[in-house]
Amino acid sequence: MEVLKVINLGLRFLLEIMVLVILCYWGFKVSEGTILKLILGIGLPILIAVIWGMFGAPKAAYLLSGFPFLLLEIVVFGLPIIALLILDKPMQASIYGIITVINLVLMKFWNQ
User: Fold this and answer.
1) Which helix (DSSP H) or strand (DSSP E) does residue 45 occupy?
2) Model pLDDT for residues 99-112, shown as the tens digit of each residue
3) Buried b / exposed e across 35-46, counting CB within 10 Å, b at 16+?
4) Which of 53, 87, 106, 109 has the least C-beta neighbours within 10 A?
């Protein structure tokens, strides 16, 4: 069982990285013009990383708990689904979404 918990934590880390990668990809694909591409493709992922680092990461300075933390998780891990759907990639959005939901449920179940 401990191995599964470690795998789930590793998956969580990969999902956190995927949030940034997908949002970066989305920002460069949907925008026109260099400035807007930089703002959306680099600025948005950095903003999400800072917000997650301050309020959601395990060693966050101001770690949220309870409903506010759940809401933060839904927003942070839900944005890539919306981004992929905007990019007309429903299969990738579905796969990412299913894996994310399973991971979040196991995180709550195992109290990780």
Assistant:
1) helix 44-55
2) 999 999 999 999 98
3) eebeebbeebbe
4) 109
State the residue range of the domain holding 71: 2-109
**Token pair of 56 as six digits:** 């959601």
Locate all alpha helices (DSSP H) within the chain, ordered by sequence.
2-30, 34-38, 44-55, 66-86, 90-109
Q: What global pTM score does this model have?
A: 0.93
Cβ density class 64-77: b for 16+ within 10 Å, e for less? eeeeeeeeebeebb
User: What stretch of H or E contains 49?
Assistant: helix 44-55
Domains contained in the chain, number: 1
DSSP 33: S
Residues 55 and 72 sit within 8 Å (Cβ to Cβ) = yes
Q: Tokens 């990780």 — which residue?
A: 112
